[in-house]
Amino acid sequence: MNRIKYRVALLFLIIFVTGCSQPIVAIDATGDDYLQIISGLQVRYNVRLQYDNFGDPSWESLKCDALRSGDLMRLREYLVLFDREFSKYPPEFVAKTGLKCIYLCKNLQVGSQFRSAVPDYYTECLYYDIYKGYQQKGYHEDVIHHEYYHMIEQQLNGDAYYKDPEWATLNEKGFAYGKGGATVQKVSNVGAYNHPLTGFASMYAASGFEEDKAVTFATLMVADTQRKINKWAKEDAILRAKTEFMKSFLYKNCAEMNDGYWAKILK
Q: If 0-12 CB within 10 Å is exposed, 13-18 middle and 19+ buried, where does residue 136 land?
């Protein structure tokens, strides 16, 4: 036991002396539980989960930095949250969506815009920035599911920006979506779940077909927001129709995502 404590202390001393620029792999020998989380997710879902040595993205404007030893504390915190949220998905469903890798990173950006997450549809990889917005309660839980839904749409409907004609009929006659989520990234409070319009959980949802569906999906995947949308849906027939549509769509692709599945999320 003393020998183990000595090794751990020595490794942290090395990190302290050499600075925070060392790769996280430098302290992997401690056998930290974050490695068990990574290994468990990789085995269960047959995906690669990495915090460095990322593959090349599909477009040059997507950039991010690998995590280093100074990010270890934040990585631990994020992995506990990520494991809890992503483990809600049945492995059969994840396999059907074609997901190949999950990259945990920092300073994630597309062009000049910093992002909390980015789905790369062509390499089947999801990028998540473990820092952006992490001090905002419930933010990362929402982001994990929201961005994954864009990949779900790409795989199951053939296009992440699919203009679903059936979904369109659920809105009020004459309603027109905006020009997409990228155009409202800097709008204050646009992502807040406050039921600002009939049929919408947030103003961000009104920015595009793809965002409306991703918002609806994400609200259902987290207990706090599912309670909100369920409450609003009692009085809002359009929002109720959208939640029913989403649940039906998911059930058709994975029988495990039935009524009991959604009830379990609320527990």
A: exposed
Whole-angstrom distance, CA of residue 218 vs CA of residue 230? 13
Q: What's the structural domain count of the chain?
A: 2
Clarify whether residues 208 and 86 are in a common domain: no
Largest CA distance in the chain: 72
202-240 burial string, b = 16+ CB within 10 Å, else e?
Answer: bbbbbbbbbbbbbbbbbbbbbeebbebbbebbeebeebb
Q: Is the pTM of this model over 0.85?
A: yes
pLDDT digits (tens, 9 = 90+) for 31-50: 568 889 999 999 999 999 99
- Is the same domain home to 103 and 167? no
Which residue matches tokens 């009085």?
235
Domain of residue 213, residue span = 161-267
